[in-house]
Amino acid sequence: MRGLCLMALALVLAGCATLDDDDAAQRLHQDILTLDAHVDFPLSALSEQDLATDTDLAFDLPKMQAGGVDGAFFVLYTPQGETSAEGYAQAQEIAGTRLRIIRGLVDGNPDKITLATCAEDVPKLAQSGQKIALIGMENAYPLGETVASVADWAARGVRYMGITHWGHNQFGDSSNPNFQYDRGPRHGGLSPLGEDLIRALNAHGILIDISHASKDTVMQALALSEAPVIASHSGAKGVTDTARNLDDEQLRAIAASGGVVNMLSYAANVKALTAEQEQFRTALRRDMGIPDSPEYTMPLEIEIDYNQRLLGMYEIEPIASVADYVDHVDYMVSLIGVDHVGISSDFDYVDDTGRISGWYDATQSAAITRELLSRGYSKSDIAKLWGANMLRALAEAEAIAAHAPC
Ligand SMILES: [Zn+2]
Q: Does a structural domain hold residue 261?
């Protein structure tokens, strides 16, 4: 009986401790400045929905409010197509549309969210209770075969620019070649135009973002850049070996530049599939008659059905969790130090196979803080991870720029 009472008491105390920990994590999360380093949206959904309202997207103003997220880098993402005049024109149209939508959100809600164009604006805006929009560009493809428009993009508020996305482009090689165009590397890293891009970005105080770039591109960009280099959304290959996660040499070189690697939450890069899950996927592809070729592009109606059936994988082994995400943060912090790691959601995938459990949308952002706190990170370290490191890198890029944005 006495044993039972003690057990009950222990359970009550354990319950209290959990509640206290939760409160402490919530308080800390509200106290610090939190910036999500990479937020982008499917373009079709973005065109139809108003981010100032409660949408069915993972990130919008009400979700920032509910999740205690102070600001974000909203991303002008362009998928990689052919490097031709027609391809560049289409890419410019896409980037321009995205910019108009983000500017529309800011201009239409001046009492709620403000565009920050330099690092020093951000803490001031947060103090005033405003949400903060920063702009990043994912894939420099829309620039065409010149870097002349870097100045215009800087003036429009772009504060980081990714060199590539999936598929090589005119500036450099990607970590993931598009087999429609290339079987191996195209340039062996940066092209001569890509080297011009690095210099132009340095000159305008725009951070170079190496997420999605090949290792050669990454190392050459690092050798050339005078400013810190960042990864806006990349994981550690040492934890999950995918083509676009970064190996230890890349992580160390980014830290040596004064840069920041922001961990992404896209599930496939957070946690590797087990052998049984791989077998499930292979069997599913065989059942559905899907060719096992990197050159095959799945038609949308088949992709929807495939993704739905693929969810069966997570009955074998659960999808990546917040703990798996923070395992990457821990790994990177122990390798390169807490001054060079950051947090990004990269929630753009709309299906259930993309997002990790426990951080499904921006309302759950405090879950990351809670996990960091439970692993012994201090308040100042958590603040560094949640944006202070990115602001430091941005301020350094501005300080050395010949044409600084502010
Ligand atoms: Zn991406």
A: yes
- The alpha carbon of 132 and the centre of ligand 1 are apart by a number of angstroms equal to 21
Q: What pLDDT score was predicted for residue 95?
A: 97
Q: Ligand 1 center to residue 31 CA distance, Å? A: 29
Q: How far is the CA of 232 from the centre of ligand 1 (A)?
A: 8
Report CA(107)–ligand 1 centroid distance (Å): 26
Domain region containing 389: 33-271+319-400
9 inside domain: no
CB neighbours of 140 closer than 8 A, spacing ≥ 6? 161, 162, 163, 164, 169, 171, 197
Tokens standing for residue 260: 């920041």
Distance from Cα 348 to the centre of ligand 1, integer Å: 9
Beta bridge partners of 236: 246
Q: How far is the CA of 250 from the CAs of 42, 261, 279, 348, in angstroms?
A: 29, 10, 31, 25
Cα-to-centroid distance, 211 and ligand 1 (Å): 7
pLDDT band at 405 (very low <50, low <70, confident <90, very high): confident
The answer to whether residue 394 is domain-embedded is: yes
- 2 belongs to a structural domain: no
Q: Answer yes or no: are the C-beta atoms of 204 and 150 closer than 8 Å.
A: yes
If asked whether residues 241 and 286 sit together in one domain, one would say: no
Average pLDDT over residues 192-221: 98
Q: What are the pLDDT digits (tens) for 109-154?
A: 999 999 999 999 999 999 999 999 999 999 999 999 999 999 999 9
Shared-domain flag, residues 307 and 189 = no
CA 264 to ligand 1 centroid distance, Å: 9
CA of 230 to the centre of ligand 1 (A): 13
Q: How many CA atoms lie within 13 A of 230 on its CB side?
A: 37
Shared domain check, 267 and 131 = yes
pLDDT of amino acid 351:
62
CA of 212 to the centre of ligand 1 (A): 7
Are 281 and 375 within one domain?
A: no
